[in-house]
Amino acid sequence: MAAYIRLSREDGSQGREPESIVNQRKIILEFLEEYFSPEEYCLAGVYEDGGKTGTTQETRPEFGRMCRDIAKGSINCVVVKTLSRAFRNYADQGRFLEEFLPSFGCRFISMGNPFVDTTANPDCTQSLEIPINGLMNDRYAARTSEDVKRTFQTKRKKGEFIGAFAPYGYKKCPENKNALAEDEDAAAVVREIFGSFLGGMSKSGIARDLNDRGIPCPSVYKRKNLGMKYQNPRCRPGEMPLWSLRTVDEILKNQMYCGDMVQGRSRVISYKVHVQERVPPEEWIIVENTHVPVISRETFQRTQELLKKTARTARGQKEPYLFSGFLFCGQCQRAMVRSQVKGRVYYYCSTYKNGSRTACTKHTIRHGELEKAVFAAIKLELYRSVSEALPKAWDCGKERNHGTEKALREGKRRLEKIRRYRRSVYEDWKDGMVTKEEYWDMREEYRSQEQSLKEWLACLEDRQEEREAAPKEPENSLWGMEMTELTRELLAVLVSSVRVLEGGGITVAFSFRAPGSSGSE
User: Is 25 within 8 Å of 3 (Cβ atoms)?
Assistant: First the structure.
């Protein structure tokens, strides 16, 4: 004989004491003593699923273990407090009571209303009361699921974090679990990843470098440093997770690191099918300036531009080739391929080299000559456009600052509102409208909210000051990048593509150009 006990997250969060694990166990044990004589039953085990939904068997490990024990013949009777503790799925209830249990000769007893005992009353499962009760339990689960979805959606739109684990680089605020604070150690690694990638290192090279230096990957860090019960779903049991190209890529593409709350990137198919599916990016819920940024917005945007370029890396090397993803044939528009002959690097049209020599010509150019020509073209274009580009750059900065200013105004308005509430609760206490204990509780709550808002506003003000103090001398540098040599970071910010013409000439298409300019040759 076995007892099955289940407590859902909703039951626990709503403080339903009668449904608690302890109470269910107590009620079932008292029932067994009254319903059976001591020699009639032997309790083989108690199967407990805490914080699990009853809509599927797959998400309830103990229920699944109990079913396996029934199939092995270890259990011949199952006792539950009510049908809803065992099932919230109408179809599963029918299969379990009418097919699974009879096939193994297992008895089933439910103590609630309706009372079920498949041995004392074999025809009870055929009455209308059982399926109607199962249907009501099923609909209750559906309504609860919709209520939870609406609550989560509201929190997402307000910019409140609802995930179980904070993204790597952040931690949940102790005072407010729906807010994020910077985790200094992990945030430093995130900044290093962005800096290394913009500095020319490949994603796989970054992963190898982090592993070689013994820096724990996000899943290991969360378990060891933060004591989290976190498991990487892509890691096999017993395997030590390492940094991978995929992990680095996900960090580089994560907009959360520039201070924006990005949520709703995945969803379950339904309340019965607990399978995650990806949500298209246009349906993600993004709320800007909700937490402290780990990197600047400009750094994130430059990173996204560079990620769009296909970059090849030599075997065993950590840095991709300088022109990977940028270099194309000026005639057939196909990518150029890299070739090394006697220590010298050349580029050839891929159509000519790997396809047909009649479809296109070599369009060959030496790497050193190409690098000098592109760098000269960039400097020429920058000098040509500086008088026009600088005002436009500041206009763009003003547009970005508008979002920060709006958040500052809203935050200050909320701060003043909280202060008014804190003053009014004192007056309520003096007038006898609230007790002293209630006054102290509300006072501390408002004080905590006020402190969190002050920290957030300070962060926004710092960001605004940084933007106002941005470099104003593009002739020497561009957004903090030194113009001393040609780098992939420089290419990502300024260049869309480089096309090689027959005879060694080049055309550079700029993403940053002077009015009326179409490129430099």
Answer: yes
